[in-house]
Specification:
Blueprint: E1 2-4, E2 10-12, H1 61-67, E3 79-81, H2 85-93, E4 100-105, H3 110-125, E5 130-135, H4 140-145, E6 153-158, E7 162-168, H5 174-198, H6 211-215
Parallel strand pairs: 3-5, 4-5
Antiparallel strand pairs: 1-2, 4-6, 6-7
């Protein structure tokens, strides 16, 4: 008689392999009573329940986490990676008066990787703005048409004025990025106040000129 185990090993009884049982030998497995010493009942092996890891889209979550690039980790909710030119154009057209920050990067760019945590922090601090990331390696023609000369590179857009500034930035001069967000973000806040002031349905007026006068 052979008893198969889960680990792949097998035990053979003495008469299965043609050996004669001698005095002092351990009893063959098929001759054992298989009874408990406590209650005398037959031992029933219970299947152990495990806690499975549910896959995401057919993948193990651990594998998914390991396959994420550094630019996809610890991102804020208002950060999004651009997959096509149409997506970038549609986002800019539908952003309204929100500040849109477009970051151009490459996975092999050490400066981009070092700057990533601080950009994520700025995105969290400026939740009303939209932060887009464009992978230069995947969208070279788009980056060239937008005049990207070096990486990392940033372009700021506002609904009222289009592109308001563009520059390169590293950890050494991160203040340039913070100042740009503060400057253009504040401008858009003032613009929103002007819209509210020019709204005829509101019951108050801030004394600010209407948007029609500004555009004229």
């Amino acid at each position: 008689m052979a008893v198969s185990l889960r680990n792949g090993f097998r035990f053979f009884c003495a008469h299965d392999i043609g050996l004669e049982k001698r005095v002092g030998d351990a009893p063959a497995l098929d001759s054992l009573p298989w009874k408990s010493d406590f209650k005398g009942s037959r031992i029933v092996e219970k299947e152990q329940k495990s806690h499975p890891i549910f896959p995401i889209n057919g993948q193990n979550p651990m594998d998914v986490a390991q396959t994420l690039g550094w630019w996809q980790k610890k991102t804020a909710p208002n950060m999004e990676e651009v997959e096509s030119t149409d997506q970038l154009v549609d986002t800019l057209l539908n952003a309204g008066d929100k500040l849109v920050v477009v970051e151009f990067f490459s996975p092999q760019c050490g400066g981009c990787k070092a700057l990533h945590p601080k950009i994520c922090q700025q995105a969290e601090l400026n939740s009303s703005a939209i932060f887009l990331k464009v992978n230069y390696d995947q969208h070279r023609s788009m980056c060239k048409s937008l005049g990207v000369p070096v990486l990392p590179f940033f372009q700021f857009y506002s609904g009222a004025e289009g592109r308001v500034c563009s520059f390169s930035c590293t950890n050494a001069n991160i203040k340039k990025f913070k100042d740009a967000v503060k400057k253009h973000g504040k401008y858009l806040e003032e613009l929103e106040k002007m819209k509210l002031a020019s709204n005829t349905h509101t019951e108050f007026s801030c004394g600010m000129p209407s948007l029609s006068r500004i555009s004229s």
